[in-house]
């Protein structure tokens, strides 16, 4: 099997480390792996397939292929780069990589709504990938887990409206956010006052109805990401969507209460049958045994879990459900690696 040179930008971060782990776990055909982060991390090492790989500082020449006559670069020329170092880094460096023929799979929100950039959840819309579109966006974590469950129901019954409320883990805000929750929990336990740094308020023993910044319309950027990205991925602008995104003191695994109104009636039983056949989706729905998805169970799992599927008794064609997935895996690193696999399947990579 042909192997590819792969880069991970933001490799030392929460998502970046999971990307390295997922490349190994998925047995992605890696010839050489190059890891990039900021100057702070230069020289650190991360393990991949039993080998320690030294982290390079990301610079404008990181992806450069030497021109004829120039001294050849000692570093492997990349076929694909998974980016996870924030929007401003993606804005600056993704075009530099793409210019050198590198496929960029970007985890930030920088490129997601660009009409020229495919926004991909492989099991839903991998047909939007194209050899000429070198920058590919990985959707927002909350969006991915919701559309993985809703797309099959949309195909069956056409969703007219989605109302979603999220309960998002602190790891969605990066490594510093995880440390903040840990420190606040132990500070409060020893009677000390806490000073929020990453979040706008104390996150320990609290819920914060704000993720990302507020926009002029009164929604947060995270809420509007869910609205706009869902329409783009499902390729249907007619779906009405409204979202409330809440940060909760959970370390790993986003949860979502989702209400849908459909054109055709779909019973909870039918919805369970449809979803049981979807790869990557697990139905956990047995209230007689108190079984429903939980972030503690979803953490470190690849799948998206759905349960509490029940009729919305306030309208004629409506369902309620509860969707949970690991925000760092299907919500980020795993979906990115799966996009890479799809590029290989479609013979777009390195050919
Ligand atoms: N966490 C999630 O659930 C999730 C889900 C989907 C998407 N995302 C997106 O993924 C991105 C990373 O998230 P994260 O949670 O992994 O954050 P994180 O834990 O804070 O990690 C950030 C990474 O970016 C690197 N970085 C920062 N400044 C850099 C620079 N100037 N040059 C090169 N690298 C730089 C950091 O390197 P150093 O270690 O050297 O500082 C680190 O590797 C964000 O865009 C986020 O919105 C996150």
Written description of the protein model:
The protein has helices spanning 14-25, 87-99, 122-125, 141-157, 175-189, 221-234, 268-276, 295-298, 329-345, and strands spanning 4-9, 30-37, 45-48, 51-57, 80-83, 103-106, 135-137, 159-168, 240-247, 254-262, 281-283, 304-311, 318-325. It is an alpha/beta fold and 351 residues long. It folds into 2 domains: 4-138 and 332-345, NAD(P)-binding Rossmann-like Domain (Rossmann fold); 143-327, 2-Layer Sandwich (Dihydrodipicolinate Reductase, domain 2), CATH 3.30.360.10. Strands 3-4-2-1-5-6-7 form a 7-stranded mixed beta sheet, sandwiched between helices. A 6-stranded mixed beta sheet has the order 9-8-10-13-12-11. Strand 12 (304-311) and strand 13 form a beta hairpin. The chain is globular, with a radius of gyration of 21 Å. The protein starts with a strand and ends in a 6-residue tail after the last helix. Bound molecules: NADP nicotinamide-adenine-dinucleotide phosphate. NADP nicotinamide-adenine-dinucleotide phosphate binds at residues 10-16, 37-38, 40-41, 58, 84-87, 89, 107-108, 141, 171-172, 174-175, 327-328, 331-332.
Profile the largest sheet. Answer: 7 strands, mixed
The number of helical runs is: 9
CATH superfamily of the largest domain: Dihydrodipicolinate Reductase, domain 2
Mean pLDDT: 96
Would you list the SSEs in sequence order as H and E?
EHEEEEHEHEHEHHEEHEHEEH
Structural class: alpha/beta
Helix proportion range: 25-40%
Low-confidence stretches: none
Roughly how many Å apart are the termini?
A: 13 Å
Choose one word for the global shape: globular
Strand segment tally: 13
CATH class of the largest domain: Alpha Beta
Q: Based on the coordinates given, report the CATH architecture of the largest domain.
A: 2-Layer Sandwich
The tally of structural domains comes to 2
Q: Bin the strand percentage.
A: 15-25%
Listed once per kind, the bound small molecules are: NADP nicotinamide-adenine-dinucleotide phosphate
Please state the CA-atom Rg, rounded to the nearest Å: 21 Å
Main sheet: which strands, in order across? Answer: 3-4-2-1-5-6-7
The name CATH uses for the topology of the largest domain is: Dihydrodipicolinate Reductase, domain 2
